[in-house]
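Customer escalation, tier 2.

The customer says the design service returned an amino acid string that "doesn't look like it belongs to this structure." They asked us to rerun it and document both sides in this ticket. The original structure tokens are below, unchanged.
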């Protein structure tokens, strides 16, 4: 937020005083600057992180060079997987832990390969066909199936987005209890829409990639909690099921929030966007794939 304020302040300050523009033009320019401010703030954060990385010792050594090369290989798979850990998912996992402790931890080993395989299937569809998932459904199954699938996706995404933004608003209220819930929801919604509509894909994908690093906070928080690792390993390897109503509902919720419908469409579409970004703008140029892009995709996923 401070970066946004500084950006707006400096933009206004650097405007030539002698330059006389119509009021409507000045207002339009002001609106554009406000719209671009969140993206500019994210860009400042990314550039700051890159500068810090360059000043680290042993930057030219092989381990760090390999880590850097690996980082540049990551893209759609990383952001899609990170987006799957959304606020509604966090709320589901937190509720599960609060009610059953480590009792359902074994589901992590069960759901991770499912999610990875589904991501790879969707990525392969995009790389080989050159179309998104919706385009492939239209070509191979017809318009009726496409409309039906789109309606189901729209309904699922609407509920999912509502749960996500509501969870974000509730988290914000933990820090600022005096803020109105409805105003926070509207604010988050406008911010997300502005970033998606007015930020080019290449920049937006870059921001999401860097923001995915925040997931390391889970590892840090797990270490700081000092759990009994023997218990953690035991519940991770041995399933514990009581077959009561609450536990079955939570298992369904975990499966549903981990393998969500938008994951399928997003992964396929991002593979297409990556190809368009490097100049493969026609369907013919995107169709088919060689071993090297498939290998990079598998590393990413």
């Amino acid at each position: 937020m401070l970066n946004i304020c500084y950006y707006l302040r400096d933009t206004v300050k650097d405007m030539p005083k002698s330059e006389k523009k119509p009021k409507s033009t000045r207002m339009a320019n002001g609106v554009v600057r406000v719209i671009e401010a969140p993206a500019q703030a994210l860009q400042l954060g990314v550039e700051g992180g890159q500068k810090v990385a360059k000043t680290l010792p042993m930057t030219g050594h092989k381990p760090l060079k390999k880590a850097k090369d690996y980082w540049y290989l990551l893209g759609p798979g990383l952001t899609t997987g990170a987006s799957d850990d959304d606020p509604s998912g966090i709320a589901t996992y937190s509720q599960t832990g609060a009610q059953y402790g480590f009792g359902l931890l074994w589901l992590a080993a069960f759901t991770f390969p499912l999610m990875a395989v589904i991501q790879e299937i969707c990525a392969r569809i995009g790389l080989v066909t050159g179309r998104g998932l919706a385009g492939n459904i239209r070509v191979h199954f017809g318009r009726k199936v496409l409309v039906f699938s789109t309606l189901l996706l729209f309904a699922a995404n609407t509920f999912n987005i509502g749960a996500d933004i509501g969870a974000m608003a509730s988290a914000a209220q933990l820090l600022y209890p005096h803020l109105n819930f409805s105003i926070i929801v509207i604010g988050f919604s406008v911010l997300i829409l502005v970033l998606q509509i007015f930020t080019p894909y290449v920049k937006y994908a870059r921001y999401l990639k860097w923001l995915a690093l925040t997931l390391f906070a889970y590892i840090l928080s797990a270490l700081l909690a000092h759990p009994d690792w023997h218990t953690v390993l035991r519940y991770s390897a041995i399933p514990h099921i009581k077959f009561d109503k609450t536990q079955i509902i939570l298992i369904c919720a975990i499966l549903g929030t981990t393998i969500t419908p938008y994951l399928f469409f997003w992964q396929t579409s991002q593979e297409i966007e990556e190809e368009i970004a490097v100049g493969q703008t026609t369907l013919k140029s995107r169709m088919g794939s060689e071993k090297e892009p498939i290998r990079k995709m598998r590393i990413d996923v």
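Tier 2 assessment: The sequence is consistent with the input. Residues 1-15+26-45 form one domain. The longest helix spans residues 23-55. Sent an explanation to the customer and offered a walkthrough call.
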